[in-house]
Design goal:
The relative contact order is 0.13. The chain has 167 residues and is mainly alpha-helical. The protein has helices at residues 2-14, 16-47, 56-87, 90-108, 111-119, 130-140, 142-166. The termini are far apart.
């Protein structure tokens, strides 16, 4: 097991640039989910109006993109775990914590619970309603990680393009 882990870490370190770009691409899909959460679910509760009532197409896209969150979180956990291990950066540690809190949101408090509580619908669980607010806060904790990962990906792509132009 130790050998396999060392081999994986060596492979990951060799391919860190491409995995960073893939992680950023996966995270881009989460922006639609966060947009829906803010302008549909929260706005309806806070203002009594929704600014985005998704059609069946958008609902299905949001559902598909929501499934992309798990590979994005796994990839980001490895990315920032390795970064913290190599540099001891507090920013990497913060990102690692923010990302891993997402698992709590995914497996503990589902979007259905959050939407039902925020909309004032029927109780779908024995969990107290104030947990919906915590779930929303947890969901938005990935924003700084998304931004940093996207910055890194843009830097990697720019560097690659400059290298290609020189050859």
């Amino acid at each position: 097991m130790k050998y396999a882990l060392k081999k994986f870490v060596a492979w990951y370190d060799r391919h860190q640039n491409i995995t960073t770009v893939i992680t950023a691409a996966l995270f881009l899909t989460q922006i639609l989910h966060l947009y829906w959460l803010g302008v549909h679910v929260l706005s309806e509760r806070l203002f009594g109006v929704t600014f985005f009532d998704p059609s069946p197409f958008w609902q299905n896209l949001i559902i598909v993109f929501d499934y992309f969150e798990i590979p994005a979180l796994v990839s980001a956990t490895i990315l920032y775990g390795r970064r913290y291990q190599k540099t001891g950066s507090l920013g990497a540690l913060r990102n690692l914590i923010f990302i891993n809190l997402q698992y709590l949101h995914i497996f503990w408090i589902t979007d259905e619970f959050v939407e039902a509580v925020v909309r004032g619908g029927p109780r779908v669980t024995i969990l107290p309603p104030w947990l919906a607010l915590i779930a929303i806060v947890i969901d938005y904790l990935e924003v700084p990680v998304i931004i940093e990962t996207l910055r890194d990906a843009v830097r990697i792509v720019r560097k690659r393009l400059v290298q290609q132009r020189r050859t």
